[in-house]
Amino acid sequence: MKLFNNRAVLIATKHHKEKVIAPLLQAHFNMTTAVPPDFDTDNFGTFSGEIERKNGALETLRQKCEAAMNQYGYDLGIASEGSFGPHPTLFFGHADDELLVIIDKKNNLEIIAREVSLDTNFNSETISSLTELRAFANKAQFPSHALILKAEHEKGTEIIKAIQTWDDLENHFIKLKQKFSEIQVETDMRAHLNPTRMKVIELAMEKLIQKMKNCCPNCQTPGFDVKEVLKGLPCEWCKRPTQSTKAFRYECVKCNFSEIKNFPHDKKVESPEFCDYCNP
Questions:
Q1: Which of 21, 185, 14 is nearest to 100 (CA)?
Q2: What is the Cα–Cα distance from 107 to 78, expressed in whole angstroms?
Q3: Is residue 274 within 8 Å of 242, Cβ to Cβ?
Q4: In terms of residue numbers, what domain contains 145?
Q5: pLDDT digits 0-9 by tens, 24-53
């Protein structure tokens, strides 16, 4: 934990994520935070599709953070990367999958946190009337959450982003409708225009803070974290192992020291309803 105290850290963002990231770093580690004035994170991909993300979320996250650190000469940097789509395990509704990384070049250390939340307004529809537009907007929590209008044609895509008032939304739609029969309306998922997403980033940041505070018992390096989930919590009735979590295996990112912590959810037995033998 002392590795981070009183350090200067660069937050690689252009969409005001420092509003939820900086206060936590300052409160827990007394860090001095800075945001690059002209670092264009859109170069790594945009939600609205003009620039495709070339790599996966984790690799893009690292590239974004390291590029900002190299450009501005910082040895400590932090960045986030979001993805939107079906929940990875629940298979219903849309999910916001947020990754955060802190990279410490001085100590050759990288710590990553993840928050997956069903709390998102992520959505898009093809519409052809003001009635459909208003219905979508209400469902998307507009105007507190911004919207995007798009129209695809033979020369490319006409796009209007960061729409935040009803007058602008309807006027832009009417103008596009004069040229195109169908319009695409979608939620603007950039953090500074989407309060719901900003809250999920804050939750991910709180997880990252805890990982930064959790040090290896062997070498005291921060980032001592769960490496493997071990199933086999015994059934309360038959005592056979179930698919429920029995333990977490923690591993150090530096010295590879490993430790198993049993019953992480404060449960020593599982209900028979989750037992493959008692409730096949």
A1: 21
A2: 15
A3: yes
A4: 124-188
A5: 999 999 999 999 999 988 788 777 777 777
Q: What type of residue sits at position 201?
A: I
Amino acid identity for residue 51 in this structure: I
* 200 and 69 housed in the same domain: yes
The owner of tokens 């015994």 is: 234
Residue 236 CB-density burial (10 A; 0-12 exposed, 13-18 middle, 19+ buried): middle
- Beta strand pairing call for 94-104 and 76-86: antiparallel
Domains in the chain, number: 3
pTM to 2 decimals? 0.91
Q: Is residue 1 part of a domain?
A: no
Q: Residue for token digits 């070498």?
A: 219
- The alpha-helical segments, DSSP class H, found in the chain are 18-29, 57-72, 130-139, 166-177, 195-213
- Provide the 10 A C-beta neighbour count for residue 54: 10
Residue holding tokens 């923690």? 250
Quickly state the pLDDT bin for 154 (edges 50, 70, 90). low
**Domain check: are 167 and 78 in the same one?**
no
Between 195 and 157, name the one with better pLDDT: 195
Calpha distance 39→42 (Å, rounded): 9
DSSP structural state of residue 93: S
* Strand ranges of the sheet holding 225-231, from the earlier edge strand across to the other edge: 225-231, 245-251, 258-262
Is position 80 within any domain?
Answer: yes
DSSP E strands in 154-270: the ranges are 156-163, 183-187, 225-231, 245-251, 258-262
Both structure tokens of 116: 């997956």
Q: Which burial class, exposed, middle or buried, applies to 106 when counting CB atoms under 10 A from its CB (0-12, 13-18, 19+)?
A: exposed
C-alpha dihedral sign at 151, 157, 163, 167? negative
First vs last C-alpha separation in the chain: 47
In what helix (H) or strand (E) does residue 150 lie, and over which residues does it extend? strand 147-153
> 220 lies in a domain?
no
Q: Which of 213, 247, 266 is the last residue of a domain?
A: 213
